[in-house]
Specification:
Blueprint: H1 2-24, H2 29-54, H3 57-62, H4 67-93, E1 98-102, E2 108-111, H5 113-119, H6 131-134, H7 139-145, E3 152-157, E4 160-172, E5 176-183, H8 185-218, H9 228-256, E6 263-265, H10 267-282, E7 287-292, E8 296-300, H11 302-318, E9 325-333, E10 336-343, H12 350-353, H13 365-370, H14 377-387, E11 391-397, E12 401-409, E13 413-415
Parallel strand pairs: 7-9
Antiparallel strand pairs: 1-2, 1-5, 3-4, 4-5, 6-8, 8-13, 9-10, 10-12, 11-12
Helix pairs in contact: 1-2, 8-9, 9-14, 10-11, 11-14
Bound molecules: adenosine-5'-diphosphate.
Length: about 425
């Protein structure tokens, strides 16, 4: 308080002193002014120092608005901004995710510590390096060269191949980009543990279930007429459990696979088999139509494609009341070919569609169980299609029916092979 008061009387005092000094020296009018200005400046500095030492926001607001004060405010703001910037940089530098700031030509402008360990960038010589050239040969470089607007999932980190990362490119500032790479190794490990657990449990259950099922089959209901209905139910449930275990093992295998065999899948014979399967499940309750106009074969895994395409047929029959129609189509599209199964069944409300390919997701659990479903069929379909770079599309109207369509790209098509001797169908006749 005493300090700021002493600062307030210093300005007029200094002014007075300046004028007195000018008058005493007998200087010209210009000299008076110059001396006055100089003293005012000194006074301002004294005031500023005083404010810097003890001043508050209020003291500053109450001060006269002079060029020096404005300069001081500017410097103060600049220092605060520089300090904030420094804090932000330090925070970004120590984030566990790798961050690389790229210019319009994808040259490295800045990167944090995690980018050094995960992406293998080095300071200072990687500053201004072209990121794609710097990471040449890695999956990340290929992604940077192509369409990097879609995130890249679960790849080996170029700087530490034992670690897994997800990468994303975000627009930033003026034509700049931020490349973010998140270390997901712990998630990948957890996912691997989950997968192994499911696979091991399924595998362990297989043998006891086979034994139980075998004994149940040996029992003749006529020998135990009182238990005949119970025996029938036990057989149905043990078969269902067996199917769940088989589907879980199939899913585990598909999940760990990155590629599929590139074999010819003769579509004419596969479609004929699918039709027979539909008729076998339907037992004459539905009209089954086959409409194959594509005249191309598929390239991929015959066993997996059969399993996926047959799942859709089986679902169509199981979720369509008697007298409905099931239409299996195989047609060409501008981008490749489309396999679809259309039914006139129960249909699916729109809010369920996005979740249908999740394991054990059912629109109606009782309907699925009653029809012998495991809740894993569409999950298997999705995995098989992913392995063949295909896509599943679902259209449905409750009460009217559904269409499940598999889109295959041109790279998966082969001209139809008609030499039956060379390519005998290796698909089972019945499911
Ligand atoms: P599920 O073994 O239960 O049939 P899926 O994974 O094959 O398991 O299908 C998941 C769920 O999707 C089914 O429980 C059913 O509710 C629904 N669904 C699948 N296909 C059809 C269809 N053609 N019509 C109506 N609902 C269907």
């Amino acid at each position: 308080m005493t300090q700021s008061r002493s600062a307030t009387w210093m300005l007029p005092a200094a002014l007075l002193a300046g004028l007195l000094a000018g008058a005493a020296g007998g200087a010209a009018a210009g000299g008076h002014v110059a001396a006055g200005v100089a003293i005012v400046a000194v006074a301002e500095i004294v005031l500023l120092l005083s404010r810097l030492r003890h001043g508050t926001r209020n003291t500053m607001a109450s001060m006269p608005d002079t060029p020096l004060l404005r300069h001081d405010r500017f410097m103060h703001r600049s220092r605060r901004l520089a300090s904030n910037l420094h804090d932000l940089r330090s925070a970004a530098a120590s984030l566990p995710d790798a961050i690389v700031l790229l210019d319009q030509q994808q040259r490295v402008r800045w990167f944090n510590h995690a980018a050094e360990s995960l992406l293998g960038l080095r300071r200072p010589h990687d500053r201004n390096a072209f990121l794609q050239a710097r990471l040449h040969g890695s999956e990340l470089a290929n992604w940077l060269q192509g369409d990097s607007s879609h995130p890249l999932h679960d790849i080996a980190a170029p700087g530490q191949p034992s670690r897994h990362i997800n990468v994303e490119m975000l627009p930033f500032g003026h034509h700049q980009h931020l490349l973010l790479a998140r270390d997901i190794s712990h998630l990948t490990r957890l996912e691997q543990i989950r997968r192994d657990f499911v696979a091991n449990v399924s595998h362990e259950l297989r043998t006891p279930l086979t034994v139980i099922h075998g004994y149940l089959e040996l029992l003749d209901p006529e020998d135990v007429p009182d238990l005949a209905p119970v025996l029938g139910e036990m057989r149905t449930q043990s078969r269902r459990m067996g199917q769940i275990v088989e589907d879980l093992l199939t899913l585990s295998r598909l999940e760990t696979q990155n590629t599929v065999s590139d074999e010819r899948v003769p579509m004419a014979s596969l479609l004929a088999t699918l039709r027979k399967e539909a008729e076998a499940i339907s037992q004459g309750r539905h009209r089954i139509v086959l409409d194959a106009t594509a005249h191309v074969d598929l390239l991929g895994s015959p066993k997996d494609l059969h399993s996926a395409l047959s799942n859709l047929v089986s679902n169509a029959v199981r979720y369509t009341p008697a007298d409905g129609t099931i239409t299996i189509r195989w047609e060409r599209t501008p981008d490749g070919a489309l396999y679809s199964v259309n039914d006139t069944g129960f249909g699916i409300p729109a809010d369920h569609l996005a979740r249908l390919t999740e394991r054990f997701y059912r629109v109606s659990s009782s309907r699925s169980r009653d029809s012998g479903g495991t809740g894993l069929g569409l999950s298997i379909v999705k995995h098989v299609l992913n392995l063949h770079q295909g896509r599943l599309e679902i259209h449905s109207t409750p009460g009217q029916g559904s269409t499940f369509a598999c889109r295959f790209g041109k790279e998966r098509l082969l001209p139809e092979h008609t030499g039956e001797d060379d390519f005998p169908p290796d698909f089972p006749d019945t499911p």
